[in-house]
Amino acid sequence: MGTLTTENLTIRFGGHVAVDGVSCSFEPGTLTAIVGPNGAGKTTYFNLISGQLKASSGRVRLGGRELTGLPASARTRAGLGRAFQLTNLFPSLSVLENVRLAVQATQRGAHRRGLNLWSVWSDHRQLTDRARGILESVALQSRADSPVASLPHGDQRKLEVALLMALEPQVYMFDEPTAGMSHDEAPVILDLIRRLKQDRSKTILLVEHKMDVVRELADRIVVLTNGQLVADGPPEEVMASSVVQEAYLGRRRQEAA
């Protein structure tokens, strides 16, 4: 357990600075919503933290451990949990098999030690039971035997969260977790995040455009505009600030007018 820190994190694409010297710390037991207008650099910032993109300059640390030069896979092993993209999965395998493989990657047992068949079977059953429990928590138990490639969009998003839970990370990173989900599907994911938030040893980062979700879930709001951090603090304070009204909320009101 430890603090996630970015120090002057920056990335340039040609002459464009997409994330510009962002320094921020995220403490366990806190859900931080990262908001801002389209093109503000929110998802790019996420990608720099999780290792999907290589920073032009700056550093990333977790619990004092230097992550800056590590690839995404090593950052995952270090405790950073970024929601999977389905291209990283095994589309021909079932939903249950994919989750079981994610559980297996974090567990020690006979399946990794080559012991006798009884031990291997017992260990396999425990992994399967754990995977089934995760699928039940994301309301995917009815799709356990379906190939991943056959899932509709809403179930794909649920599976992304299931895989993230299977890895038991120190830091949960959700990038618009309910995007594209129906009105009936979204509450399942939001309820999951509420439950995860109860574990005070975990850090949760959430990129979200739905401000009602942000108001309800966030302990803290960080605002990015043009790749720069422009506001940071408690939700009521940040939402009332002039910089947020102009840079984000004001734009929404104008669009609705």
Topology:
Elements: E1 4-13, E2 16-26, E3 31-35, H1 42-50, E4 57-62, E5 65-66, H2 72-78, E6 80-82, H3 95-106, H4 110-113, H5 117-137, H6 153-166, E7 171-175, H7 186-197, E8 203-207, H8 211-217, E9 220-225, E10 228-233, H9 235-240, H10 242-256
Parallel strand pairs: 3-8, 3-9, 6-7, 7-8
Antiparallel strand pairs: 1-2, 1-4, 4-5, 9-10
Helix pairs in contact: 3-5, 3-6, 5-6
Name its key features.
four-stranded antiparallel sheet; 257 residues; six-stranded mixed sheet; 23% strand; single chain; 10 helices; alpha/beta; 10 strands; disordered C terminus
Explain the overall architecture.
The chain is α/β, with parallel strands linked by helices and 257 residues long. The protein is 42% helix and 23% strand. It has ten helices and ten strands. The strands form two sheets. It has a six-stranded mixed sheet with strand order 6-7-8-3-9-10, with helices on both faces. Strands 2-1-4-5 form a four-stranded antiparallel sheet, covered by helices on one side. The termini are far apart. Residues 109-121 and 253-257 have low confidence and may be disordered.
